[in-house]
Structure formats: structure tokens, C-alpha cells
Amino acid sequence: MGLWKRVSAVLFEQPPTFLFVEHGRKVCKASEALVRVMEAAASGGDVSGLKAEVDRWEHEADQIKHEIRRKLPRSDLFLPMARGDLMDLLWQQDEIADRAQDAAHLLSLLPLSLDGELGEIWARIVRGLEESHSAYCDLIESLGKHLRGERQLAEKMRELLGLIGEREHAVAVAEDELVAAVYRHGSMDPFQKVHLVEVARTVGQVAGHMENAAGRICLLFLG
User: Is it the case that residue 11 has pLDDT exceeding 50?
Assistant: First the structure.
């Protein structure tokens, strides 16, 4: 491709930054499916079909991730911010889907034992992740509008960042409580204990990467 064609592609094609919105939408689908996996696992339902949904959306997010990597210019000259910062955002956002896939896979391997206190704490984790997911998806849609010129959404996006941070904290607190309750549990099989702790930690990572990605979105696009 000649120099003019390369410059024309940068100047006149859709900016690669819009692809972050498309990637975020796929990631949101993956985290939404994970919430349904968690709900089904808690009630003893079959999670295989829902796990397949998580796998599907994670794969579609990966395809857009690869497209972003191909389209991002090697030089910062034709980008609104540093390429490295955009790649860091891409990694954080992609980790949401990756960890959602990991959690769904774990939940498909062994039935959960969530009697009494464990069930109550698990419900709080599910609720916190669902609320974080909802706020993150709202942030992604707001980012799309912001990139099309609707600058009045900046304050809303900052408020969503705060909400996502609060929900991540709630998930982290409940996660630690669940782990402590698992260790106190007298009759649970040791392998089940290890499994439930690993599930809780992986779900916590999903919420953590949502907060990290949201923070980078606001820092990079809102200043």
C-alpha cells in the first residue's frame, strides 16, 4: 500500500477507538452470561448452555481485539492518545471476558454447595457483579455516544465509574466473607472448599477488571 493510501486509511476510515465500544459490548454479553451461570449454579441448574454463551461472547470479543491490534497505528501521531494507553485499556477490558470464561468453566465442573450462610453471601456476590455489569455496559454505551460528539455525557460517565468502584468493593468484601465462611465450614469436602474459593476469587477478578477498565476509559476519553 502506498503512502497516500495509508494516510487516507487513517484519516477517513472509522477511528479505531470506536472499536473499543464494539469490544466492550461483546465483553458485556460475556459478563451478563456469567451472572446467569452463577444464578443457575446456585439453584442446582444445568449451566452448560449458559457456559457456551460465555464462550461465544469471549471469542467474539477476541476477534474484535485482534482487529483493534491490526488497525491501531504504530505511531501515536494519528491517535488521540498514546497507543500504549489504548492497549492497556484493551487488555483490562478483554480480561473481563477472559475471567468470566474462567469462572463459567469452573462452575460447570462441580456442583456448588451453598447451604445457609454460604448461599446468602453468594447471592450478594451475584447481585454486586450484576450491578457492576449493568453500570459498565451503560458506560460503554455512553462512551459510544461521547465519541460521536455527545460531550454532555461526561459527568454521567464519571458517576458510573464511581458506581462501578462501589460495586467492585462490595463484591470484594463478600468474596472475602465467602472465603472465610468456607474455611469455617466443618462438613464440606476439602476439594469442594478449594473449588469454591477459586470460583469466588475468579469472579472477584471480573469485577476488578471492570473497575480498572472503567477507570482507564474515563482517564483516556474524558481527561
Answer: no
